[in-house]
Write a structure and sequence with these properties.
48% of the residues lie in helices and 14% in strands. The protein has helices at 16-27, 46-62, 79-92, 109-127, 138-150, 155-158, 182-192, 208-223, 227-256, 271-275, 279-293, 300-308; strands at 37-41, 65-72, 97-101, 131-133, 164-168, 171-174, 257-258, 267-270, 317-320, 326-330, 333-337. Helix 2 packs across helix 7 and helix 5 packs across helix 9.
Length: 346
C-alpha cells in the first residue's frame, strides 16, 4: 500500500485532467447523465483511484450520486487486509463503499471478470443505480486489441472495451477513463496525493494481460513511441465503424423482412432478394436476423451449408436449429419457426 496524506478536500481541484474529463462528458452526455446514480468499481489501484479523484472533483458540477464497490478475488494473502484498509479510507472520506469476497476464488481472468460484473449488476439493481463505472484506460484498450488480435478475433473484438454498453435490465456499463493512459492515472494519483493499494496479482505472468502489459507494450512503445495511444484510437474507430455497420445492416434487413405466409412462423425473409446478394452480405444479414429473432448465431460451417441451399433453383427445404427451432423455405419465403411445444416466444 502507498499511503500519502489523504487530507486534501475533495471537489476543490480544477486542472487540465479535470477539464479533459469534463469536456469528454459534455461531448457524450449519455455516458454519465447529470444527477445520475452511479456505482463505481474501486480496486484501490491507480486507475480506479484516479477515476474516483476526478469524479469527486466534477461531482458538484454534474450532481451525481456516487457509490463504490470493491471486489476481493482472494487471489493473494493481503487481499482481505487491503479490502479493510480501503473501506476504512472510504469511510474517512465519507464515501459509501460495498465490498464482496468471491467464494470460491475464480481460477481464471475470465471467471473473475464474470464474477465482478455479476456482483456489480446485482449491487446496482439493489441500489437503484443506472450506470456501473469501471476505470479502464486507453492502455487497457490497447492491451485488449492485441490479445483479441492474437486470438483471431472479428472486428467487433478488436473494437472491444467500448465507452458504453448495456449491462442488463436497463443498466449501462460505462468507461469514462478511456481518453487517459496508465501514465496519466499514475501522475493524477501522485498529484492528488491519493493512496494506492497495489494488487500483487497484477505482476503474475500466469495472467495473459499482465504479460502483454509487462513484455509486449514496452517493446512496441520502444519501437514506435505513442503506440499505446494509437492502438486505443484504432479500437475506438473500429467500434464506431461497427456501430455504423449495425445501423446499415438493420436498414437492409428491414427491406428483406416479410410477413410470414405460413401459420406458426414468427418472421420471414425474402428468399429471392437474400440469395441475390453477395455471399458476405448474405452471411451478415442471416446472422443478424437469427440473433434478433432466435437469440443465437449459426456456426460458420452450418451457415455456409444453409446459404448454399437457399437459391430458388434449389427448391424447398428445412434446416433444424437448436432447442426445437427450425427454418423452412418454399417459393420466395424463408421462415423461422419456434418450438411447437412452446408456441410463440414472448
Amino acid at each position: 500500500m502507498i499511503l500519502p496524506s489523504d487530507a486534501s478536500p475533495p471537489g476543490r481541484r480544477w486542472g487540465p485532467d479535470q477539464d479533459r474529463l469534463h469536456r469528454h462528458l459534455l461531448r457524450q452526455p449519455a455516458l454519465l447523465p447529470k444527477g445520475g446514480r452511479l456505482l463505481m468499481a474501486l480496486s484501490g489501484g491507480q486507475d480506479s483511484m484516479a477515476l474516483l479523484g476526478l469524479l469527486r472533483d466534477l461531482q458538484s458540477l454534474h450532481g451525481w450520486h456516487l457509490t463504490l464497490w470493491h471486489g476481493n478475488h482472494g487471489w493473494h494473502s493481503e487481499a482481505a487486509v487491503q479490502a479493510q484498509a480501503l473501506k476504512a479510507w472510504a469511510e474517512r472520506q465519507q464515501l459509501p463503499l460495498h465490498g464482496q469476497r468471491a467464494d470460491p476464488s475464480p481460477a481464471t481472468e475470465a471467471e473473475a471478470r464474470k464474477w465482478r460484473y455479476r456482483c456489480l449488476l446485482e449491487q446496482a439493481e439493489a441500489l437503484g443505480c443506472s450506470h456501473v463505472l469501471t476505470a479502464h484506460t486507453a492502455t487497457d484498450r490497447a492491451e485488449t486489441l492485441l490479445l483479441n488480435l492474437a486470438r483471431g478475433s472479428h472486428r467487433r473484438g478488436l473494437g472491444a472495451l467500448r465507452a458504453r454498453r448495456p449491462l442488463a435490465n436497463g443498466i449501462q456499463l460505462v468507461r469514462p477513463l478511456l481518453p487517459f493512459t496508465r501514465e496519466d492515472t499514475a501522475r493524477i494519483c501522485q498529484e492528488m496525493a491519493l493512496p494506492l493499494w497495489i494488487d500483487p496479482s497484477n505482476a503474475e505472468t500466469r495472467f495473459s494481460r499482465n504479460r502483454v502489459r509487462a513484455d509486449v507494450l514496452p517493446v512496441l512503445e520502444d519501437l514506435h513511441p505513442g503506440a499505446t495511444t494509437r492502438m486505443a484510437a484504432l479500437a475506438e474507430r473500429l467500434a464506431q465503424e461497427e456501430e455504423q455497420s449495425e445501423e446499415i445492416v438493420a436498414i437492409a434487413l428491414g427491406s428483406l423482412t416479410m410477413a410470414p405466409d405460413q401459420q406458426g412462423a414468427i418472421t420471414a425473409l425474402n428468399r429471392r432478394s437474400l440469395a441475390a446478394l453477395q455471399p458476405a452480405n448474405q452471411r451478415l444479414l442471416m446472422q443478424k436476423w437469427l440473433r434478433l429473432h432466435w437469440g443465437s448465431l449459426l456456426e460458420a460451417r452450418s451457415l455456409e451449408r444453409l446459404l448454399a441451399r437457399l437459391p430458388l433453383d434449389q427448391g424447398p427445404g428445412r434446416h433444424d436449429l437448436a432447442k426445437g427451432w427450425h427454418l423452412r423455405w418454399e417459393g420466395c419465403s424463408l421462415l423461422l419457426f419456434p418450438p411447437t411445444d412452446h408456441g410463440r416466444p414472448g
